[in-house]
Specification:
two-stranded antiparallel ribbon, 226 residues, 6 helices, five-stranded mixed sheet, alpha+beta
Length: 226
């Protein structure tokens, strides 16, 4: 591009030099674009790496390291989000491994860990992705079954109990069969509910089941009088 002053060029035309200048300027622009693209790609890669590390950290923070299920803290956060089950049928389930202390005392804590991992896999494979399963305590678990009517929720829990009865944990040549007792409180999605009261009632049902011989599903519908 030539600049004219009073109709006169500011410099004499030299085809070779001018073409070389234009070529060099173009190469510099192309090189700048390439470097900018590489820098942008590098920044994107770093951002994705940081995002992946953040997700891994959150996953470690929110899950029990042994079973891979949600931990108690993350489940409490979920339970506080009433919109997840407000105006919907759902159930709260408390589960307890029968005679777990005896398993630890007889075969050792490593055997107990193997039992916890095995039972947790059954939970993961039986409950749906929309449900929430957490290790609530040492051998106690809490489950939120979402979008399920009373008989549907109880049916799922009975299915889990049956799978547990059939499940054999192999540990150092020893075959261990661990059963569980369940307390289930259902809600019809229409009336008011109180999560804390539902958990308390499910826990009471659980202990009723333990006193009744264990390896049983105890259930009730939620009532505000609890």
């Amino acid at each position: 591009c030539y600049i004219y002053l009073d109709g006169q060029p500011v410099k004499d035309f030299d085809g070779f030099k001018d073409l070389l200048f234009v070529f060099n300027l173009s190469m510099v622009c192309v090189f700048s674009v390439i470097v900018s693209y590489l820098l942008e790609s590098s920044n994107l890669f770093i951002f994705l790496s940081i995002l992946e590390e953040k997700e891994m950290a959150e996953n470690i923070l929110n899950h029990d390291p042994l079973t891979g299920l949600l931990n108690r803290t993350s489940m409490q956060k979920i339970l506080s989000q009433n919109d997840l089950y407000k105006n919907r049928d759902f159930a709260i389930v408390m589960c307890y491994i029968d005679n777990f202390k005896k398993i630890n005392d007889t075969y050792g804590h490593s055997a107990g860990d193997a039992v916890l991992k095995s039972l947790s896999e059954i939970f993961k494979n039986t409950f749906r992705n929309d449900d929430y399963v957490a290790r609530w305590g040492g051998e106690e678990f809490l489950v939120v079954i979402r979008n399920a009517k009373k008989f549907g929720a109880i049916s799922v829990v009975n299915r889990v109990k049956e799978l547990l009865n059939e499940n054999i944990v192999e540990f150092e040549g020893t075959r261990i069969n661990a059963t569980m007792t369940f307390g289930v409180v259902t809600h019809d999605g229409a009336s008011k509910f109180d999560i804390e009261k539902m958990i308390k009632k499910a826990d009471e049902l659980l202990y009723d089941g333990k006193r009744s011989g264990k390896n049983i599903v105890m259930s009730a519908e939620f009532s505000s009088v609890y």
